[in-house]
Batch of 4 targets.
Target 1
Amino acid sequence: MLRNSFWKYAALTGAVAISNIALAADTIKVGVLHSLSGTMAISETTLKDTMLMLIDEQNKKGGLLGMQLEPVVVDPASNWPLYAEKARELIEKDEVAAIFGSWTSVSRKSVLPVIEELNSVFFYPVQYEGEESSKNVFYTGAAPNQQAIPAVDYLINDLGIERWVLAGTDYVYPRTTNKILEAYLKAKGVAPEDIMVNYTPFGHSDWQSIVSDISKFGSKGKKTGVVSTINGDANVPFYKELGAQGISSADIPVIAFSVGEEELSGIDTAPLVGHLAAWNYFMSVDSEANESFIESWHAFIKDEDRVTNDPMEAHYIGFNMWVKAVEKAGTTDSQAVQDAIIGVSVPNLTGGLSAMMPNHHISKPVLIGEIQDDGQFEVVSSTSGLVVGDAWSDYLEGSKDLISDWRSPLSCGAYNVKTAKCSGQNY
Amino acid sequence: MMRLLNNDVGGRWLIGSLLLAIVLIPVLNSLPASSSLYFPTYSVTLLGKYLTLALLALSVDLVWGYLGILTLGHAAFFALGAYAMGMYLMRQIGDRGVYANAELSDFMVFLDWQELPWFWQGFDQFWVAILMVMLVPAVLAFGFGYLAFRSRVSGVYLSIITQAMTYALMLAFYRNEMGLGGNNGLTDFKDILGYSLQSDHTKMALFIASAVALIIGYLLCRFITTSRAGKVVVAIRDAEERTRFMGYRVENIKLWVFVFSAMLAGVAGALYVPQVGIINPNEFSPLNSIEVLVWVAVGGRATLYGAAMGAILINYAKSYLTVELPEVWLFVLGGLFVFVTLVLPQGVAGLLKRKGTE
Amino acid sequence: MINQWLVNCLSWGMGCLLLVLANLSQAGTFEIVEYEQALIKAKFDQKAQIMASWYEADQAQAVHLMQLMLDSQLYYLKQDKRLYQVEDASSGAIAQRIHDGGLITLKKKRDVKRVSINNRLRSVFRQRVTETQLSAAKPQDRLAAAESIIGDTTPELMATIARLRLGETDASVLAAFDLVLAVATLHSSNEDQQRQSIRLLGESLHPASLNALNGFLLTYPQSPLIPMVGKYVEQINGKVDFYGSLETIYFGLSLGSVLVLAGIGLAITFGVMGVINMAHGELIMIGAYTTYLIQQLMPNHIGLSLLVAVPAAFLVSGAVGILIERGVIRFLYGRPLETLLATFGISLILQQAVRSIFSPLNRSVETPLWMTGVIDINPLLSLTQSRMYIIVFCLTIFLLLLAVMKRTRLGLQVRAVSQNRDMAKSMGVRSEWIDALTFGLGSGVAGVAGVALSQLTNVGPNMGQAYIIDSFMVVVFGGVGNLWGTLVAGLSLGVANKILEPWAGAVLSKVLVLIFIILFIQKRPRGLFPQRGRDAKG
């Protein structure tokens, strides 16, 4: 008995200690922090595979700085505190040069203090609510001004929408986006009674009352549109209910910010034809870069039916930016990479160049697509030029005076131009 | 204290190891990083987290192992304690948030709140927070237990309504109107009692605090279960009606043990938050409560030390497997549930006991 | 005709003009092939112009093509750049040439490309199609067209309708025409005409009528007719409220039947056998995946596949259930709380297994055509058909299960074993066999519920999790061991949820319902319909 529990204890501490001995560094390690189990696996597994493919391709091109890249994949199991724990493990134990990961805002928020404390480099590939700019994080997904505002402009100008339903899942991304849109619409002269805001819980499955409300809201004689920030699993029953109540895209078009090709692959899209989505990339985009990206994705995943989506493009851009910055700096040292990466520009998949801005957001085109019955989007509108991601929205009371610029001498993520004070990280 | 540990070999080992860890780990941690015995700070925090979860398992074992209530909602008490601590840590950020607002936290500025909600008042004081860490779970447990035990809800029904309780709380905390950060919860903590949470010393101190809390929690549980009242508790578990007929106020005893257990879970939550750096409504998830039961079952129900041991073992396995074999983790966890209930009803502690008597 | 087109074109802009010039330089006459090729090459904003001129040239064909584009059936062959109608573009599909009706077989899917349209075109085309539908042969087509333009017309359209009205024979179409005209005459300067319109609109329930009357209140605040309009508006609003609450109850019943469906299998395994089956949600999931697989096997018979899926899901989930009972649960009888742990473990394993086999992505299950659409009771109340089927399906399953439990030998033996195992054994009942069958029955019913749920929500590894807590609440609230209790509990929780939702919001109403259940259990610890007898202790 005595001996037993002692050895148990010794083995426990021993195992922790041994696993901490650093391995010899003849490769450059890249951390991949995406959930492979639990509720987020549905979205994040694809991004893990994308990263493995990108790293594999880079290695075939001869690696980086003469060394091979080695992916370190961990599974935070859709558990938010575990994201922070795994990030710390990747940086402290595995000594990765950079981490690519996360999907939800809460997982990014969980990782953030760790990344900042250990001064690492983190690439976040999903569209998000903005209102953040960290020295250590590079936001390759869309900020609200790279998705929501152009989408609403399209609805106003091209579809003549006058009445608005802002429907979202109750969490920070829809809340912020809807607040920005409300302010934007009111500035455009939309009356408050022509805006209906609705929040539902995660995974909401019974949409009967809400869809019926939307339909009644839309029967008041003005052309009505829905701006949907409904998240993940709740989308399928929502669209199914729209179809069931006979609301077609011609009656009340829905434009979604969280529904892409991958989400559509789990839905029968016939009743959805004509509804819209706003992204910075669609699989159907006609460009050489996209063509070859899809080809290598199919070859890598060994399945011709798999689709590509916007967050995958974000990883594609982010990874290539990181590679270029490392080459420019000649080292993977995170401080040097942070300095070198600003201004780096790499090809995106829509046929242009995306650049890393001083606020750690990137410039991208904004595309509006209509859902087709084969689960793809037909691009119906795109911005004429690139849109630069805005960390701090001009339409929010608390942040309209804030700017972010990580170049010296300012070197600040939240600089108030009115009070000339810097707040947030390191202050 | 020694009297409490009479006939409790497992408990002596648990406390012995904890004391040893308190002494040894700071020493190993101060060695140079190149040394093969070096114990990195990262692992200290991880171990600290396991200890808080062990404390949670202890509180569940007290209720399940000794009161016979299969609670599917203890994560609620844990999370409430954690939120109370999280609120204190949020207030400590002061004007270092991104919006540089000394009064309001970032998420409140974000949602256009003009003033601090009433229930945030006082949380800038550490002692208020500590009080709330224990008081809030205790009040909930009292209210819930008072109603449930008085109307003699028991068995499966009780289990299901504990689940309903934590589920309802989870849904409520997800709402942004609750004023507790919604889905994102509370995060980006800076310091505790003026010490930076990023410093190695603070982390070590939190680890030691967790170990000490576990020791004290263990002794208190041991005191309850070996005292006269503890004997009644076991009697209630095994034959509630008979105990009632012998004149014991069964409801009251059950209620007080339940409330104590909730407070213990709250303390565990409070120690958990500064070490993991985030608290969000997901901690209320019914799934979490059920997972705690597995820790207890694997370690050995109604042994106390077994529960603590089970929590540490399984969480270590989780940390290990989610890195090495991510896809296998749920198979292993699921398999453990089935295996332990079928083959090892007494858990690892039972196995050790059998070995010991052989 | 070409001149006419040229005039239209000029007013539309340069792009069209160039097109016309190019065409005119080729030949004096304008051929369908030129329209076709213009349409293929055109950008979205040009397509409307091309179709408009085509409409001028050949109304019937243009409308036909617009309808095809609306249905995404208009393609062009890359080879000859002509338009074809293709119902389902895949290799081997038949394509029909538009201009001469000739048929060809497609070699490859990529041989053809769809003539794409966007939302703006869609509404333009729809309007055109609607206008021609006003004089369609079938009365219901005319009615639908007329109703869709109430409150949304142009002066030209009004003239058309006034003309059509003279020749119209169908009473309901006539009434719809009258409404269309009434909205316009509301703004007439003749007070008598106005009064007549108000009376007509005030007695109709169409939403556009109410909008028109409300508009009247705002536009003519001085009019002597205001009290009359106010009275009608009040009257209509009363009806809107009335039908709104009927709709809420319908929504509640349909949500309730989803809850009953999800919970009824549990009412057997948990209620009758006392097994706390945490893997119940995953048995529902297995039923849904079975539906998915059957649809994959018979992709051309979606409606039929759903019917096949019902027995298939019952068998698959039932078999898995029997496997779980024989493999794990039978060792745990008498220890209900430990079955909870073991079955929870099984649920984790099943989830991860599905994730490993089918990938973590959701699967797409199609809804057959006969399940979509709405039943219009009146303009204010229409019931969704899919929900109607779910309610009927739920009741059918419930009655079948009730019959099995009350009327068959199996049911008798199940009840005997659950009430007094030893006595039943001594009467010659093979109790082990009955245990396995009962658990299989409960699991099978869960699988059948999965078929229904696959029509409403995601089919993915997490779907079971979404229903397990609700299922337990329904069964416990109704009273363990009582099928009627489950039915009443499910339906009343569904209705309560929907009644609360408008003023409390979706989240809070759910929280309130949970709190209600917690308090209710305190008051009546055995649920709505407690099982009698001394063995009933949970």
Target 2
Amino acid sequence: MNRLPAVILLLLMLTAGAAMSQSGGPPPGDEVRSAALEQRVSGPMELEAVDSPDDAGGAVDINWLMEAEGTVPDSLGVIRTGPSGEEELLAVLPTGTLLYRDTTPLNGTAYSYSIVSYYGGEIAGASGEVQAVPSAQWLYRGRVGMMIILVILTGIILFYIESGKKGRELYIREIAGLAAVDDAVGRATEMGKPVLYIPGIMDMDDIQTIASMVILGRVARKTAEYGSPLLVPTSRSVVMSVAQEVVKEGYIQAGRPDAYNKENINYLTDDQFGYAAGVDGIMVREKPAAIFLLGTFYAESLILAETGRSVGAIQISGTAMPSQIPFFVAACDYTLIGEELFAASAYLSREPKLLGSLKGQDAAKLFFIILIVVGVIAATIGQFWPPLESVAEFLRDLVTVN
Amino acid sequence: MRLIIPLAITFTSGMIMILNFFIPHQPFALLGENLQEWYMIVASGAIFLGSANLLHVHFRKTRLKLKNWKYSPVTIVGFLVMIVLGLIYGVTENLPFDYLFMNMVAPMGATMFSLLAFFVASAAFRAFRASNWRATLLLTSAFLVMLGQVPIGAMIWDKIPLAKVWLMAIPNTAGQRAVMIGAAMGVVATSLRMIFGIERSYLGGAD
Amino acid sequence: MADIFTRMGNLDRRIIFILIALAVIIPILTDLIIPNIVGAEPSRDLFEFVDALPPGSNVILSFDYDPSTMPELQPMAEAVVRHLFLKDHRIIGMALWPQGAALGQDAMSSLSDSLGKEQYLDWVNLGYKTGGGVMIVRLGTSMRAIFPTDRDNVPWSEIPMLQGINSLDDIQLVISLSAGDPGIIAWVMMAGDRYDIPIGGGCTAVSAPQLYTYLQTEQMVGLLGGLKGAADYETLVGIENGEAIRGMSPQSVAHIAIMLFIIIGNIAYFTQKRKGGAR
């Protein structure tokens, strides 16, 4: 904190200094040199060198301050002395720099560092030497809390998966949007119209897209059984490939591999609204009777859902994007809200292992709810009673990632 | 074998990335960095996959004169023109690629986005009904936010923007967080299911 | 009378579309100006944060949008670039969306000359890189490894303003103008939470509600939400009659129009309900 006035002063000087000199290497010149000797040039001070924290080694962080008085130097040099005793100029830095990371030292070797200031082509001031030994760490200090939480969460979820495998009866509540999947496909079949499946606009690295693929498998099986065409326009190439595989498998499982048409699962464009325009075009031309909007959506959500509504389709939507959920609720018949989308796999397959993981997820959520409630109470009462504040502080540290 | 290899890859990469998050020491740091680089390479390579499919689908549609085939040549021409101009002129300002981008792609995209205003109006007209006290509360909040979002709100009463900020920062945030925490739990559980090979349906034929 | 309301309740959506179009077009054509008032909003927080940074700070400006969201985000980009230039900060432009790089170039190069700034000394456009959040994590270890050259293929080592910049640790602020994913959230999670870099941002009005959560937890230093956020920033920077400020009048009228529709819809609803009740 006591460094603050010095830093502010330095920065004020820099604004003036920047106009006076261009930083760079030490420029030579006899006239300037003599001028340098006459002036008192501000030099580096309070040098510190420490092993860079939380890394695989091979790095030392150096920081320093500049004397508040005196003329601003032209540039600064970082000098390192290795185990052999040989001095090495690591870098010439513009004035104003107060930090440098040396990324070239060897782990376990001691190095000495010093900072020199250049003015008029020669060394005008130097800091003392400090030593540091770079080393690798085995754990990110700021992430220990997160690791504990992850271990607890994984433990809870794996425990319930095990209990699911052992045949324990697990209850899952009715999810209207998923229960309506079969009806929607059935309706399309009755009307002799296609089913349109939109897996969101994100790539396969998005868990929502993966969840969407799971439901697509189910929809594909149903469309194969009922004999309705299934259209899947995608906005990512990888999603297209995966969707083709998933749909093909659905058709094989339904015993209708002949009905599978690869051309119906195609790539439109990566462009967000280009994709929205393309899908809207498909809706208007093909007039699907059932539309599934499941995955990650952004501002295009309402454009798609309202167009779908205008062609009279029954619409089932689902996303974990909080800001798009209201749009889907307003324009679709059924909406899977947030985690319901991820529950689809377990809900549709009723596989004990998946149901178990769902139960584990709920238990983990309970754990978080308790954590939040305790934290809020502790932080609130802690305002008046310090011991509880330290509990709140502990919880805050636990969940903070650095 | 067709199942085991992808599951093993998923498990190994998943575990490396988790360990990389907590352990800065080698070899995890290097492995993590390598996997991230591979992902970027794979993501870039996938662009060709999409382009090939796009051309295949639309050439086929045109050749066989399938339903609505007339749109396909437009797509093909647009696609090829942009690619060729991009290859010849690069992305430098005011050259043909940039010109087409700024004067065709940009306004067309903006047009699609602006449709949102119309759809919001029609959806709001249909959906906002003060049918019970909760819906009325929702309706009142919507009015306050809509007014607070434009200067006219402050002209009517200078407290309206403050009410908007309060609604957005407190009740909205509470609701958003609930959905986000729930969804995040879903993400964690789904990821674990995938890493441990319990969830397989995303592998297509591996179900 | 009741019949009129019933009919209004079933208003054809095309009529709504036409009326909304008129509500937008008329204020534009008549040059109606409604002065913008900036209250204690997150847009002011971002402005004040940028204002308080020491001159010469390195600021990453990430253009994570494409032309479709330009109407909302480009005025933000221009206002933010102007402010950064006026405060003598160095702008490192990049894009998580392929088309964002061109839009960023447009914003920076158009203001650079008029404000006496020079490319490679005061600003640079590193261009687009795929990978989103993964790419940001890598910037935390080495920026040069991710961007060996800038958008125009000038090597990193030949760009004076980038010398001395190794990783995100050397960055004082990241501002992401984002239309979706990857965007602000990726920056908050990867650069903000992992490397402790202050994150500010601008987004479309539709996405703003979601990002308020990050403001309250101070994971973001400020936020420009939609055209109003852009207009606020223009007002704070002192741009008179900026694009976003001019956009405030059609938006005001359109909001009033939508509210009128909702009121009409509700009157129709209650009229019908009463009729139903009387029967």
Target 3
Amino acid sequence: MIVDLGYFALLASLVLTFYGIFAGLSGVHRNSTNLITSMRYSILAVFGLVLVAYICMTWAFISSDFSVQFVANNSSTDLPIFYKITAVWGGLEGSLLLWQIILAFFAAIVAFRYKDTNRETHPQTLIVLQFSTLFLLFLLIGWSNPFARMIPIPGEGRGLNPLLQNPGMVFHPPALYLGYVGFNIPFAFAMGSLLAGRKNDDWILTTRRWTLVAWFFLTVGMILGGNWAYVELGWGGYWAWDPVENASLMPWLTGTAFLHSVIVQEKRGNLKLWNMLLIISTFALSILGTFITRSGVLNSVHAFSKSNIGPAFLVFIAIILVFGYILVYKRQGDFGARLKPKGLLSKENSFLLNNVVFVAMCFTVFYGTVFPLLAEGIANKKISIQAPFFNSILLPLGVLTVFLMGVTQALGWRKTSPQTLKRNLLIPAGISVAYMVLTPILLGGGMALVILSGVSLFALLVNLIELARSYQASLARTDLSSRFKALLRDRRKRGGILVHLGIALMMLGFSGNFFGQETAFTLYPDQIKSFAGYQLLFKGSKEYQALNAKHWAAELVVLKNDQELSTLYPAKAFYPTRPEPMTEVAIHRTLSHDLYLSLASLNEDGSATLNLFYNPMVNFVWASLVFYILGMAYSISYKPVQKRLGHLEE
Amino acid sequence: MSKKSIKYLIGGVLILAVALGLFASISSDNLTYYRTPGEVLASPEKFSKERIRVMGLIEKGSVTWEPAQTKLSFRISEDRQQFLTVTYIGAKPDMFKEGQGVVVEGKVEGESGFVANQLLVKHSEEYKVDPNDHSQNKEKYFRSMGAQ
């Protein structure tokens, strides 16, 4: 009954979305405020209906209604209630429903928040948004209906994939979707602005926060995903250039380029055409990301579901690209630059270079991800492209962007004198060059490691000094309240610096991959293995129950210089609904490195075979999250002054 | 030539250079071809220098696991007629068992057949299991791991 209500709500929202698009189109055509208002309320109603559908789905999971195929495939009665609620997005159908509710929520905000501030382009923006809604509703009602029933009704569900029973995996998909859907908003405003024939930069200013939010969640989503892979998959790393990982990296790269290039348009009135093309590409790539993840077209450990929704996604991507590019082409006269840079050394040019590099990186990832498909489809040759390809191209490009991240901090708009550059960069550059020269001599280490960590250090120092300067001025105040107020000054700049610090820290963490160690070995009880300065003493096996899974663990004592540090329990977990045991890793964490242990097998003769990894600086990657959160809090709370370049100039 | 068209020309040349660079780097060391067990058996000497990937199903009864050396050997085939002997030094992956599809990456090394330094188990999407069978235990685990 409740399940039918959910499906009915989806059907009703499809009808309403059709109505909304129709009302919007004829409202614009006839210049009728009533019709536009009616469209806005229909968007609100669609949000309400999708919310109902989502609640119904959640209820089906909580009550273990296995007559619903999606519930039967992704849940079981023994599942803890928390995972029952999050299992809604544990499969294709439910994750589309999650996407739909985020989109409907965002659309409702846009429908009411900007009705007065962006009056000229608002209806067109909403119409574009509703086409995205329409696409998803078609998928939900037709190809991948989460409410579809199954007969006969099974007594027990097949259970949620144990890999997904992890806090990181619970929040990873919603974060990614918030990012993907987030980019839908600037895209809709950009298209709305083109459709309405507006020549100003309103859409950039209006969507500044949306872009920031989208970028933030995409970043957080990727880091959570990496963290999940690290603790759950047991191969010692967090990134493998897997197609699905690449799929999220592509919109992140163009999205990051967009985040920077809009600043140039906002401040200087340049790069208008470029920004249009970037946001179209970013949105199309985020749909492509979902297509790759969900269609199973590429062999991947992450593509949890295989289904036949692939063609629908490809059609939608084609529509976005064709529609977007045609619209841009038709309005190409509107994209003239206003304030051109004077000197070669200017923020504009540095941003431009940063953009070109980001797009080149995205192109590389795209090429490496799609090339094997093309080779198989066209030449019938099955090939595999792996880490060496991506590393050989993306590492130098990545180092270049990190270098720019430092240098740009010292550049001004228009032109910068070499003296300014020298004053601001001399100390950090000196320190990091000294580091890059001395490290190989004193400690050894490969080129890649030294350059990546050295340049990251440079960027870290420049941004740190810049941040310190900014706060120094604030703290010079005498009384406490004005000091506190001064802390909140200059929020945009400080936000940017904090995020950059996070990126530099993350890059330092990446460089740790170049001096990690790993080994596989077998130990009998009371034997000791020495590795990376540690000794591991195997005590024997142990059985215990944790949540709904029976664990069978190896007990290992971690020693350093005969001192007992901790006891690790890498385990095999047996979930009641799964035939295969899962590997549960155990990690001895320190600030500078992880000792990472995964149990390969407990053997019949009482021995244990283990994979052991020494992962330096891996925690820097996770720690960078703190900086993204702080930086975003600063940046988002800043409200851009509504000075419009158009007015400024004339 | 106008300033604008020079700009486009430079941009175009740059993009072309990057694309060509990508293509060149893909076609050299960074790309691994997939071969069938049959192809490898037909001319093993050919694959003693080139790193390749071979995909196949693990033959029943062919798995030996020597934990002390962390050495795993097994035979794979695609057509159940031509069997390639594979040796892998490293721990046994979770899903590794007879009848499972695997991808191995490595080279042919003389008498010992194919020596792999990468072993990927194809995840089967379909978990075929009787939902009422909750009898997971050690014995079953050993059997699934190919223990004698």
Target 4
Amino acid sequence: MMKTFHLTITRIGETIFDGDAVSVSFPGKEGVFEVLAEHEALISLLSEGELRIKTTSGETRHFEIPHGGIAEIALNQATVLL
Amino acid sequence: MTPKDIRTKIQTTKRTHKVTRAMEAVSAVRMRTAQRTALADRPYARAAFSILTRLSGSAGFSRHPLTSVRVIRTVALVIFTSDRGLAGSLNSGVLKAAMGAISPYPKEAVVVYAYGKKGEEHFIRRGYRIIRAFANKNDAVEISVMEELSEELAREFARGTYDKVIVAYSNFKSTFEQTPTVRQLLPLVVADVKQLVEDIVPEKGRWSETQTAASSNAYTVEPDDNDVLDRLAPRLVAVSFYHMLLEAKASEHSSRMVAMKNASDKSEEIARDLTILFNKVRQAGITREISEIVGGREALAA
């Protein structure tokens, strides 16, 4: 069983994604980085690009973030603010 | 009053009752919608606040253009009210709180952004300068409007046109309790934002369950505090602002719902009293007629 963590992608007024993920790759300002479950607490600025989410069912989902955003990761919960 | 007059009055009262009942039901639905919208946005506010808390200790925080505390020459007041009345003491409470908040400043030092007609009329009557006014009609809040407005406020604040931005609105605590609230939007103060995030959860009722917040001070920040803060601060202003509006909407609908409920109860009571009166008058009429007939017959028999 793969360890998972909870991911929320949200912009003001609406939540775009809310569910469990196995891994997510973020387009960080200083290069793409990948987050797995139990990641250390992190706040990172995201550049425009693409989020790649590997969900619990094994499929990979892509989200374009044309204006970048901020990712906050703590206590096995990742939140992306667009 | 003749029985006919009373009957007409009973009918009118019943008709009023129908209207107030319908308005009560409509407000109940709209209140729930507003509450749900506010809750849907909680993850954003919570995460934005966690980030802010982490960054607030950094050296760059107090130097950021949106946190600078200055001598106050101009205050921008944003006021959220409803467009229409029949909402109990909602608007008068908010307007009173707003007037209290701007009372230390001379009239020339205050500019007003009015969202909702009641607030606009109030400040026009008192001769304040209205910069922009919006109608508060739809429940679907145009987020683009809110973002544009908050951007404008942030820009003018950073530029020094306004030295302080405050918002007066009604905070939704529960269906029966809404408190007029005045909150500082700019300069950003951590304590104020914290209060706002906590207020998103109503005190009781079906949406009051709290989510455990991540309280971690051990964040790594990339690329650095200032860059993140530059991005975050305007968003935080926008999300705070948006939430105040949602609180105002939920308050408006619940306040109206309660007002309409009282009106419905009262009209029911009046209809009941009138019916009793109608019966009494009718009975008196019948008694009088009978005694007239009996009297007439006895007069003939004599």
